[in-house]
Amino acid sequence: MMLYTQNNPKRYAGWAALIGTIFGLPLGTLLAVVLEGWPLPWPTALLPIIGMGIACGAFPATVVLYSLRRIKPLPPDTDPAQLRTALKLVGAGVPGADPATNALAARVAEQTLSYPQWTKTITVGFLGLTGLGIFVTVQRIQDDNGEALQSIAFTLYAVVGLILTQVMAARRNRNATKLREAVLHDTPRPNEAPER
């Protein structure tokens, strides 16, 4: 899938948009059900359904196209089994015994470090969700609403999501950097003889 995505980004973005739209329509339907208590005529109730479908389709396609424009794709004839091994090496941050797989892992690590990190965007998004959760929780507690526990759970989910996202991204980049440096350090330079 990774090779297909890198070498056919527009086609993959099209599939991502289609699948995202298919999954977005039920989410929009749920949103319309939540809004049903409002005095909305039926055509207006279609807006969240269609809007969610379009958003869930456009977002993954846009992310794929934006992310892949900054990286150099792997050769289409890359061995998938070797790529899986290289991905494991990048995840661990330690080179393996096979020089060819290590070279591929170094390229994958370079790609990993070239992807947009979205750190600020993710942080702002999760902080926005956390603020919304706190606001709703306070309102429900003041109104003696029994659903305050749901709001607290939502808020905790947003906080844990922010922490896990940032920790995992930092670990992934740290290990990719370690592997790339280890492979480049062990590779003899063009005018240097390898150590014996």
List its traits.
196 residues; mainly alpha; disordered C terminus; single chain
Report on this model:
The structure is a single chain. The protein has helices at residues 2-7, 9-34, 42-68, 80-92, 99-114, 119-142, 148-186. The protein is mainly alpha-helical and 196 residues long. α2 (9-34) runs antiparallel to α3, α5 crosses α7 and α6 (119-142) runs antiparallel to α7 (148-186). It is flat and about 65 Å long. The two termini are 40 Å apart.
Straight-line distance between termini:
40 Å
Unreliable parts: 188-196
What is the share of helical residues? over 70%
As an assembly, this protein is single chain
**Computed Rg:** 23 Å
Shape category: flat
* Major beta-sheet overview: none
Order of helices and strands: HHHHHHH
The total count of helices amounts to 7
Content-based structural category: mainly alpha
Give the beta-strand count: 0
Q: Could you tell me the mean pLDDT?
A: 78
**% residues in beta strands:** under 5%
Which secondary structure elements does this structure contain, and how are they paired or packed?
Elements: H1 2-7, H2 9-34, H3 42-68, H4 80-92, H5 99-114, H6 119-142, H7 148-186
Helix pairs in contact: 2-3, 4-5, 4-7, 5-7, 6-7
